[in-house]
Amino acid sequence: MKMIKEIGLVCVVTFVMFALLACNDSASSCDSSIYVDPLTVVKSFMTDERDGQTYKTVTIGTQTWMAENLNLETDYSYCYNDSAEYCDKYGRFYTWAAAMDSVGTWSTNGKGCGYGNVCSATYPVRGVCPEGWHLPSHEDWWILLRAVGTDGGYVGLTSGKALKSKTGWNDNGNGDDAFGFAALPAGHRGVRDGFHWIGESARFWSSSGGDTYAYYVYMNMDGDIANLDNLSPKFGYSVRCIKDSE
Fold this sequence. Notes:
By secondary structure, this protein is of the alpha+beta class. It has five helices and twelve strands. It has helices at 2-25, 84-90, 96-99, 138-148, 159-163, and strands at 42-47, 54-60, 63-66, 77-78, 93-94, 133-134, 188-189, 195-196, 201-209, 214-220, 226-231, 242-243. The protein has a three-stranded antiparallel beta sheet.
């Protein structure tokens, strides 16, 4: 619990720094008008033709996201505690290389990307996602966090609460799932094997990164914030795919 609280303090600082950088990059990044009314959200379904699994989807503003974690079995993907039961509920964890499809099974946009490899990804990166979808970039995530943040308030400081599922989080950490994104506290797979923090955190890869780091979004049980940060590509995190622009 102490560790989670300390991380929560750090993530507030991290998010504010990131927000300031984004605002400096573009004046429109600070425009609260991007906030989306939850009543305008459109819910639907999609089927991954590769294995026949069907996923809930949600359209928030201009973006359509999977509303469930990807559960496609690939090399370097894992179930919590190596139990298929957890995969059925929480989806699979992927190393960043697996999420980027570094071997080029479905596309070459992220080929060669992974720990220790300098690559030149072509965006959007389909990665491990179904055809017509892609692994969200750090910008895709930033747009989502602004869209679900408090209207007129500080970007991101309530995004976690809006995105987290209504059940499953420990210590009264449930969100209100106002947009149907239903971020589950799946936890993650550590660098040196082992699984951690189920019920306490949700972590999702982005397609942005390098040879020793990759950007991801995370939410913890003891706060309303959603955060963008970067860490070792060796970790196993969840994947949420976003639909390609038409």
